[in-house]
Specification:
GO terms for molecular function: oxidoreductase activity; S-adenosylmethionine-dependent methyltransferase activity. Pfam families: Methyltransf_11. InterPro entries: Malonyl-ACP_OMT, Methyltransf_11, SAM-dependent_MTases_sf. One of its GO terms (biological process) is mitochondrial respiratory chain complex I assembly. This protein has about 350 residues and is an alpha/beta fold. The protein has a single domain, classed as Vaccinia Virus protein VP39 (Rossmann fold, 3-Layer(aba) Sandwich). About 30% of the residues lie in helices and about 15% in strands. It contains 9 helices and 7 strands; from the N terminus they run ααββαββαβααβααβα. A 7-stranded mixed beta sheet has the order 3-2-1-4-5-7-6, with helices on both faces. α5 packs across α8. The longest helix is centred in the first third of the chain and has 15 residues. The radius of gyration is 23 Å and the shape is globular. The N and C termini lie far apart (about 60 Å).
């Protein structure tokens, strides 16, 4: 189903382009460390002509396309489906119907499968990976697929009643800009509900790889990408123009047979590392040492090992005159000193 022309943002002659800072890479060899997972750009990365680009977005697109073309792509979707369901629960908590919604970084439609037509009448799904959109899971909501970058949404201002995003924004190079783009396409009194990985995600894998590499090779490189701190998330949303903010955290722990299974599933999720400064190769003995360290430091009594995924959930509204505002300073009619007499005050009010 084609997207109505009225929703598209007018094409500009000179659209802004991110400045890419390419890290040094050693030639040859398969990058075993690329299966180490995911995270987000530093919250301090700035926008504009001096912006840093820590992630190779072209490689991330290839990783997600590869994962979507596997024989059983749903085999590694358990985490995305769980978080997508929790995002949908937050949408259901808002007692209204959204005529037009946008899913930023939708992947195979992990949020759409949990929504209903009574809540969202039409959903636009946006992702950089066309194979993920082609192999989207079924949903009862009418959907339209658009291949686009999360940092450069091709829609007009004040278009959508709702914008959702699940486990995608941690791979954008310019998170402040992405939040501003989302705020721009929202209608006044529209709401953004999103989720992204937090700072404690895969700390077991990170520590095991670093200790093993330090022991076997005399130093270590980052194999798990940097994450945005929860203390910065509210500030970034506020700076983008959102108000009535809610930010909360949650943890999901998954048990695996060992380190190699953790990395295999991360690759199947399309969550392999795509940092420009990633190390292209980890030696075999380093990987074996990391697996032993993982088991020794974090192993469960049944022989499995845990992998922790910390999730940040965020809700932000675009300003509208009808929204509730704080009362004016000094307008209170009851003193805090009268709180002990609150029952009596309520009784008098009822009379």
């Amino acid at each position: 189903q084609p997207l109505p022309a009225a929703l598209w943002r007018p094409r500009r002659d000179n659209p802004p382009q991110p400045i890419i800072r390419r890290g040094r890479r050693k030639p040859g060899g398969r990058a075993i460390a690329r299966s180490a997972a995911a995270a987000s750009p530093p919250a301090a990365s700035s926008s504009g002509s001096g912006a840093l680009s820590p992630f190779d977005r072209g490689l991330k697109r290839k990783q997600k396309n590869w994962a979507a073309l596997q024989a059983e792509p749903a085999k590694c979707d358990y985490l995305r489906e769980e978080v997508g369901g929790r995002i949908a629960d937050r949408v259901f908590d808002i007692p209204r119907t959204f005529p037009l919604a946008l899913d930023v970084g939708s992947g195979r439609g992990y949020i759409a499968q949990h929504l209903t037509k009574e809540t969202v009448e039409k959903l636009i799904q946006v992702d950089i990976a066309e194979n993920a959109l082609k192999n989207a899971v079924e949903s009862e909501i009418p959907t339209v697929s658009v291949v686009a970058d999360e940092e450069f949404l091709p829609f007009k201002e004040d278009t959508f009643d709702l914008v959702v995003s699940s486990l995608s924004l941690h791979w954008v190079n310019d998170l402040p800009r992405a939040f501003k783009e989302i705020h721009q396409v929202l209608k006044p009194d529209g709401v953004f509900i999103g989720a992204m990985f937090g700072g404690d995600t895969l700390y077991e894998l990170r520590c095991s790889l670093q200790l093993a590499e330090l022991e076997r090779e005399g130093g270590f490189s980052p194999h798990v990408s940097p994450f945005t701190a929860v203390s910065d998330l509210g500030h970034l949303l506020s700076r983008a123009g959102f108000n009535t903010l809610t930010v909360d955290t949650d943890e999901i722990q998954v048990n695996y047979p060992g380190l190699f299974e953790v990395m295999e599933d991360l690759q199947g999720m399309g969550e392999s590392n795509c940092s420009w400064n990633r190390k292209p190769l980890l030696h075999r003995d380093t990987m074996l040492a990391a697996a032993a360290i993982y088991q020794e430091m974090y192993g469960n009594s049944d022989g499995s090992v845990p992998a922790t995924f910390q999730i940040y959930y965020m809700i932000g509204w675009k300003f509208h005159e009808s929204q509730a505002r704080p009362a004016q300073r000094g307008s209170a009619t009851v003193s805090f000193g009268d709180l002990a007499k609150i029952n009596g005050l309520i009784s008098r009010g009822k009379k």
